Amino acid sequence: MNAPKKVMVRRRLKGFTLIELSVTLTIIGSLFALMWPMLGDYADELVNRNAADQQLLVAKGARKYLDDNIGTVTASLSGTTPISIPFATVQNAGYIPAGLSATTPYGQSYNIVVRRPSATATKLEALVVTSGGTAMSPKNALRIARMQRGAGGYIAPSNPNLISGADSQWGSLASDFGMAPGAGHVATALFSSDGDGSGDYLWRNAIPGRPELNRMNTAIDMNNQDINNAKTVTATTLQAQDTNTSRATVSNLLTTQDAVVNGENFHMALAVPNSSCTAAQVGSVRRNQTTSAGLVLCYAGKWQPVGNALNGIVDGARHARYPTRS
Known about the structure:
It is built from six helices and eleven strands. Helix 2 packs across helix 5 (138-147). Among the domains are: 54-189; 265-326, Archaeosine Trna-guanine Transglycosylase, Chain: A, domain 4 (Roll), CATH 2.30.130. By secondary structure, the protein is an alpha+beta fold. The strands form two sheets. It has a seven-stranded antiparallel sheet with strand order 1-2-3-7-4-5-6. The protein has a four-stranded mixed sheet with strand order 8-9-10-11, with helices on one face.
């Protein structure tokens, strides 16, 4: 009676029964089915993060390129017609890392587009928009937009012409930028401090229609440093301890303690002796236009030879001190 039991035990020790194997495979299959979406989401997250990081690098380079070339870009615009700046142009200029691909992990191309919102607008709008490649799912497109924080946007299937901020904080029509990428693409708004890249900075180059970009609003303290290679300095008042110049033109009044011109000669304006002079010119000295050698002094309403004028001044002082008796 014990022999059959021993045989059965030996058979069970050799492997699983068909029922046990089926249960095991069922459990593994269930676990795999539960984990598969999680694995897919993790893989998508890696791709989305890479796409968002690349998009931000392109946007950063494009924004800096526009800031440094705003004059050229503005001059290229006509009315509200948008322009597209090639990715290669920005990358070759050093604003985008040389090793960065011109396409996203989804095979989409980067487009840097700029427009003037109205014909008279002084501020520009700019975007980096992807196109072509494999369209992303709405979930992934939204995720990438949110990874770019407030600047990120995406195009949803419900409105293929609307580029919407990740949380609807901004929106633009793709057609306004000459684009039609369709749903499943993302964008980045190139925001700046005042919307056109000008900020509160002083620009090196003249910007058409924007003279305020080359204008200071306060005094400049040079901290005892030099200003070199200036062509013409126009000022209401010039105050300096020492002034060295090869040529100076003063239209109204020059006041100085000492003046040395060409090391020895001081060439003054000319005046004809006995011609009229104004009350504001009283005491001024000019060269004698008749002789080109002597000097004339504005005194008593006339340009008088210095000798005559001084005699008049001395005589006037003498008479004032010792009145003539009648």
